[in-house]
Amino acid sequence: MARMNRAAAFAALGASIALVVSGCSSSDDNSSDNATADADKPVTMTLWTNATTGPGAAFFEDTVKSFDTANPNVTIKIQTIQNEDLDGKLQTALNSGDAPDIFLQRGGGKMAAMVEAGQLMDITDSISDETKAGVGEGAFKAESIDDKVYAMPVSVLPGGFFYSKDLYEKAGITSTPTTLDQLNDANTKLKASGVDAIALGGKDAWPAAHWYYWFALRECSEDTLNATAKSLQFEDDCWTRAGDDLKAFKDTGAFNKGFLTTSAQQGAGSSAGLVANHKAGAELMGAWDPGVIASLTPDEKPLPDLGFYPFISVPNGQGDPKAIMGGVDGYSCSAKAPKKACSDFLNYLASADVQKAYYKAFNAPPVNKDAQSVVTEDYLKAVIAGFNDAPYVSQWLDTLYGQNVGNALNTAVVNLLADKGSVADIITAVNNASAKG
After folding, report:
1. N or C: which end of the chain has fewer CB within 10 A?
2. Cα–Cα distance, 279 to 7 (Å, whole number)
3. What is the rounded CA–CA span in Å between residue 111 and residue 113?
4. What is the pTM of this model?
């Protein structure tokens, strides 16, 4: 399991809406000067982002414009891509040899596969002293393999429940749940008040799979999670118990009607949109969610009654009830990108002033320690508190276990929730995907 020192990881806690940067590869002329100081010749790079609308899109436009102005020989072209399409398109581009210049790096098994394929640039020697001081060593360890850094840390995004304080109060819920029984009780009260208890964007698969990940984090010990990250085999009984937990929870009717055809982040009818418009009490999601929710409120401003609480404990679980799961996102340069221009942009993304703008655009804590003083929202402070209180941190399992296993796992979980598969099918799907490599 991906684990880091909590103090160091907190220094890495950063702003993102799971922001993605990537693009079609630079020209052959750009690639040829990969190892040179490319300051004296024109360089064009492409930047893909999943910030397709609103303040997030404006942030990238402003950031690229200011970087290009300060670096007149560099031109960055932005292309926006829907978040759910990004990973597949990125992998296709990398495998075809038409690699993007700069792109989101989710870490874990996905990054390891890219490094093994020679698709990433080693940026270890390109990280400025200012960036190292602002971001901290612990964050870079999460983006490293064999002591070489392959991505600029941008955000650590712990997950949990983002909820409407007003809807909880209206339903008579006086304190946020800490146990499975308390969560079930709260959900019953929410449904009785006339709203959906839990919003779930099952159409996009990964939000549904997150529920299984979290139950596994509670059912499986830290040692089991660490061992599974190496074996990629679901051999311990805890993986079955996690599936049983999810099946039982789904059968309580807590999820919104039609959750299997609900998207996660697109429009007022998405799971984030249901919370944003007070149609659902809560959503289990990563710390990018406040920014998504804010973009889907009627006035496109942060939800004033938004709150946060960590995932609940389960009876007799072998995992620590305070353990946290979340992504460690960063930006990578492709192996063929112009080295100086690309690494300069990555350093710029992590700078204090840019990180303050990042926070304002995406409503999440900035990665740069010098920018964290701007965080004022109670829910973000609660995210930080839950993260600091965690004895260990796991990456999302589909990231940690790599694309083949992750895709098989996500699909099998959705099948379980759709009553088209069983808990045993989840175990089989993962083990078969691992065996196929």
Report:
1. C
2. 37
3. 5
4. 0.75
